[in-house]
Amino acid sequence: MSITDNMAAAPAPPVLQAQGVTMVFGGLTALNNVSLSLGKGEIVGLIGPNGAGKTTFFNCLTGLYLPSRGRVLLDGSQLAADPSKVTIAGVARTFQNIRLFPNMTVLENVMVGRHSRMRQDPISTLLRLPAFHRGERAARERSRELLEFVGLTRAEHEVARNLPYGDQRRLEIARALATDPKVLLLDEPTAGMNPQETEATRQLIFAIRDTGVSVVVIEHDIKFIFGLCDKVSVLVQGELLVEGTPEVVRADPRVVEAYLGKPPEEVEADVRAASTEHDTRGEA
Amino acid sequence: MTTLLQQLANGIALGATIGLIALGYTMVYGIIQLINFAHGEVFMVGAFGGLAVHRWVLPESFRENWYVSLPLMLLGGMAVAVAIALIMERFAYRPLRNAPRLAPLITALGVSIVLQEAIRIWFPNADSAQPFPKAFVDSQITIIGLGPDGPEGDVSIRASQLLLVVVSIILSVLLQSYINRSKMGRAMRATAQDPDTARLMGVNPDRVIVLTFVLGAALAGVAGVLYGVDITNVDNAIGFQNGIFAFTAAVLGGIGSLRGAVIGAFIIGLIKTLGGQYMWGGTQYDYVWIFVVLILVLVFRPQGLFGEAERVRA
Amino acid sequence: MTILNRFSGSGALGRHLKPAHAKPLTAAGGVLAVVAALLPWVTFLLGDGAYPAKATLQFFDAPFAVEGYRLHVLLLGLAALVVTFVAKTPGRGRVLRALGWGVFAISLISAVFITGRGGGLGAITAADGVTAFGSIVGVVAGLLIVLGAKAGHLDDIPEWSTDLPRWAAYLALVVAFVGVLYLVASMLTAGGTGGASNPYAGPIFLAFLGMAGGLLGALNGLGVVRWISALSEKHRAFSIVVLLVCALALPLTSAGNEYWMTVATTIGVYAATAIGLNIVVGLAGLLDLGYVAFMGIGAFVAANLSGAAAAKVGIDLPFPLAALLAAAIAGVIGAIVGSPTLRVRGDYLAIVTLAFGEIFTKSAQNNIGGLTGGSNAIPGIPNVEVAGTAFNEPITVLGADLPGGVLYYFMIVLVVGAIMAVFANLKNSRIGRAWIAIREDEDAARAMGIKTGKAKILAFLAGATLAGLAGAIFAHKLSTSSYESFKFLESVTLLAAVILGGMGTIPGAVLGASLLFVLPEKLREFDEYRLLVFGLALILIMRFRPQGLMPDRVRRAELAGETAGGKSIEEEEELVVEHEHEAPGPKGGKA
After folding, report:
1. In 3-state terms, what secondary structure has residue C145?
2. C388 in helix, strand or coil?
3. Which of B164, B306, C37, C232 could cross-link with B254 by S-S, CB 3.0 to 4.6 Å?
4. Each residue of C426-442: b (16+ CB within 10 Å) or e?
5. Interval A100-115 mean pLDDT
6. What integer pLDDT is reported at residue B7 of this predicted model?
7. Quick one: CATH architecture of C2-165?
8. Sequence spans of domains, chain C
């Protein structure tokens, strides 16, 4: 907690900025004029009830959707509506329902993340020239560092599909970090986790932040968000309801109301139950 | 002008055949997302079923009256086509229902080869064109001298072509209303939308899938016999080519859409005849234009003319 | 093998088997196999002449003069007995199962063939007061061994240490590869050339395949196959050299005549093409149903640049240059064809590629621009020549007389070797990982910064280039280039070769191509049924062994529901059940 306070006290210039993002599907406005600003080394949480537009917003940030209005800036320049270009520019993501490359090994998964940060020309690839080996070695070393960072070194040669659930989530984070992001977007990183795993994830996110990467987290688990983030944005029905420090958001009566009009503890229990249920269904 | 009219007429007749086959493609794809490559062969087998009935089942006296022989041949063609479809659904596709998508597609190719070869080997002389009985009014309507070309400007339409078009339209309408109105039709639509929910609602997906194959095969059987009657000869290769045309039609119309399949089929029929007439390369390349259309549709409008964009599978 | 496996495994009999039955069953099966080998197999002379291996009663001289497939049955049966009674055989269950299937396959093939070719049931039972039950006893023996193996425990395939002194590892590799060479040579020549003059080529070849399958399966069960492949992985450079030398030594074996050189060259051409297709399908996961068109483009380009009189473009380029150009043009067209793949996926992609393939065939058939010769083809493509020696002439190297066509064979060996290297080097690189990532999950791949469109086009380009190169060699070897060689069915056959062998692997593509292009050669008199059997085989492979004969360790998991460790799902489920008895298991932790 104390770390969080320190960071909040020293606001940095924004790395990622969403300005008035509006997304209209057919006649339906899924997002209306949502803005978000993320400083260097900040952790921002995005919460809201189901269908509030969190995922849509995420998709606008990651280049899957082109916003109908508004724009997304990274270090002041606009992001393209193309996921690979967004990643190359420095915004990496994980997926709500884990999407690893299931039949590749753990190390290979992370090395795929190095794709845009390494060069290999066809000649040296085909002839296995020294330049090729240098590049491969560098990518492998960086990938191993990241596996160590998330604590998966021992599983390096396992096939990703055989990893336990929690490890798969961590592998996804390592893979995202392998793209050398300035901003990391985490889509429900603790969905389906038990309290110990959730806590480990929280520590991991702090550790990532300490390396200078800014983090945006979508999460149902309100307690987790409040214990993690420097700033929290609440989305309700496609609009930004409240934005501020966890304390401010927690105290806001509209937030409580938005969550089914129940006191926070109950809401939390509900949400937790809902996300667990969702997860088991996904696995079956 | 006359040539144009003549080719329009030919194209529409061809479209009617293709449409009956395309309905089977589109229904099966709509329900289980399988490109049933072998469906064209079901059409071919149906034609040979009709031929077999005429050759070996009908007594001499029956053969002379088309209103006796044709219905029996149609029944025979449908029966053979349905039987083949049932066998292939049960033994080739059903075991692969949850397999990776590559597996059923390759199986379908295998089934297609097996059916073509089985007919070639075991139906006497089926590797070369077999004369098909003209089991219908053998006359043609001639529209004389429509254009400036005088007597050479006759547009003639065979009675069997008319029959194809009429039957095709009637069957499509019947099928559409069956699927929209009947209980089984509702179950089919439900399964197409969301098989899991349909199952929860008490729909037996196996039965729905079998019914889909049966309906598609029956239509293909009818198409096969009527095609034979119209063209007056068949061989074991008619299935592959017409099958691909029909698949293209289904894609063009928006796969999963019955109306789309029929309209797509008429468009494909017209592209073939008009392309063969007016485009570079003549009839030698008419086949190519259909594939060009197929590629263009898949690339620029994969949901087809009548498909819904968001229902196209990624 | 797994095909039949499932039948018996799912049958009622399989469920009543208990481990206690294992030993008696396999022992009885082994004894019966030996007995079968010593019995006559045919009671009378068949219309086509005496059945090989002196199996016909009237040529059956002395039970101990076994030869040919009867010798194989004998050896497999003895091996089964040995394995049954040597308690510590590693991987015993799997070894026995493989041996059993071998005996079963050999016996069944002969039984079916003898009955089918005019013998009737009397030929394999009793007729004219004499008896010849060899094949039936063999079938029963094989089944007993398999059932016994199933009743017992199927152990994991044992892992052998690869920490050997260098000389020992090298020796093992040389022995293994020479063994493979011997096997390949015997397999090629087994039964001789198919055709009317040699009616028993088909069954003898198939029986040989049964024996080879049983033998390799047994070696695999012992862990030898895995050990050798681990060793060759470890000593990669040495293995490549030995393998290359072995391949080049094929003309010195029993397969060293012009006919087999031609067959081997043709296999090589298709293997090279199949490896190229494996990039597109196996690595990048893009199903291509019109792939053979690129081989066709290569062939027609080479034909037009060969100086053949019938070619429209009358340029006569030296072969290497023409081949490179053919490859490059095929590659460029491949990239163009690949571009719509940016927008379509899955089945739709298959259809787009099919459409391109059909457009190619139709255009070639219609002699588009005069470039393809239409239905006349482009005949008279001159042989490749080096220093005045045409590649179809016999040559003498270091005193050894090599048959005609051997130079084409050498060329294709080198080309296949090079293409293998290209495939392996691409697979284990940045672009290879990108392809596999796209195959696994395209959206996730894009989120990793992979420009998926560019990567897919590269896959098409690489695959088409290799096919174009193979096509150029094909045209010169055949000395003619016709659209008939590049039709839809060829695309399906190549795809089947890749799948049959095992997607994403090199040995798989080579094995698949060999089988699919040797079998028709051997079974010529069954040409009538060739395609029918091919279609049936496609259905059965997809149903019973979709991962192919030599699957990628990882890919196998996806297609067959096996885990990466090589256990089938059933076995894995048993393990899970065991685990759940011991402890709540890892699944409990997830909720």
Report:
1. helix
2. coil
3. B306
4. bbebbbbbbbbbbbbbb
5. 93
6. 85
7. Up-down Bundle (1.20)
8. 2-165, 271-511
Task: State which amino acid sits at residue C501.
Answer: G
Choose from C534, C542, C554 for mutation: most chain B CBs within 10 A.
C542
DSSP letter string, chain B: -HHHHHHHHHHHHHHHHHHHHHHHHHHHHHHH----TTHHHHHHHHHHHHHHIIIIIS-HHHHT-HHHHHHHHHHHHHHHHHHHHHHHIIIIIGGGTTS-THHHHHHHHHHHHHHHHHHHHHSTTTTSPEE----S---EEEE---STTGGGG-EEEEHHHHHHHHHHHHHHHHHHHHHHHSHHHHHHHHHHH-HHHHHHTT--HHHHHHHHHHHHHHHHHHHHHHHHHHHSEE-TTHHHHHHHHHHHHHHHH-TT-HHHHHHHHHHHHHHHHHHHHHSTTGGGGHHHHHHHHHHHHHHH-TTTTTS-GGGS--
Tell me the average pLDDT across B207-224: 94
Do A214 and A264 reside in the same domain of the chain?
Answer: yes
Domain count, chain B: 1
Asked if C445 lies within 8 A of A112 by C-beta distance, the reply is yes
> CB of B206 within 8 Å of any CB in chain C?
no
Task: Provide the domain limits for residue A150.
Answer: 105-178
B226-244 per-position pLDDT tens digit? 999 998 889 988 998 899 8
Residues of A in contact with C452 (CB under 8 A): 84
CB contact under 8 Å between A112 and C433, yes or no, is yes
Contact status of C560 with chain B (Cβ, < 8 Å): no
Which band of pLDDT confidence, cut at 50, 70 and 90, is reported for residue B310?
very low
| A110 within some domain | yes
Chain A CA closest to residue C452: A84
**C573, two tokens:** 């489920």
Question: Mind listing the pLDDT tens digit for each residue in C413-424?
Answer: 999 999 998 998
Q: Are residues A231 and A188 in the same domain?
A: yes
Partner C contacted by A8 (CB < 8 A): no
Query: What pLDDT does B151 receive?
Result: 56
What are the distances in angstroms from CA C182 to CA C40, C72, C381?
28, 15, 34
Neighbours of chain B (3+ CB pairs under 8 A): C
Highest mean pLDDT among B110-114, B153-157, C375-379: B110-114
CA distance C492 to C294: 14
**For range A261-269, the mean pLDDT:** 55
Which of B28-37, B130-139, C189-198, C303-312 has the weakest average pLDDT? Answer: C189-198
Set of chain C residues whose Cβ sits within 8 Å of the Cβ of B116: 531, 535
Neighbouring residues of C533: CB distance < 8 A, sequence distance ≥ 6: C526
Where is the domain boundary, A178, A209, A227? Answer: A178
ipTM, two decimals, is 0.89
Interface test with C, best of A95, A115, A128 (most C CBs within 10 A): A115
Biggest CA-to-CA distance, chain B: 67
Task: Give the span between the Cα atoms of C302 and C382, in whole angstroms.
Answer: 11
Contact B314 C363 (CB under 8 A): no
Query: Is the CB of residue A136 less than 8 Å away from at least one CB of chain C?
Result: yes
Q: Around Cβ A259, how many Cβ atoms within 10 Å?
A: 21
Question: How many Cβ pairs closer than 8 A exist between chain B and C?
Answer: 118
Contact partners for chain A, using 3 or more CB pairs closer than 8 A, are C
CATH for B190: 1.10.3470
Q: Spell out which residues of chain B touch residue C512, defining contact as CB-CB under 8 Å.
A: none
At residue C390, φ and ψ (nearest 5 deg) are: -75, 150
Mean pLDDT lowest among A6-10, B300-304, C352-356: A6-10
For residue B146, what pLDDT band results from cuts at 50, 70 and 90?
A: low
Nearest chain B residue to C286, by CA: B102
Work out the minimum CA distance from C448 to partner chain A, whole angstroms. Answer: 5
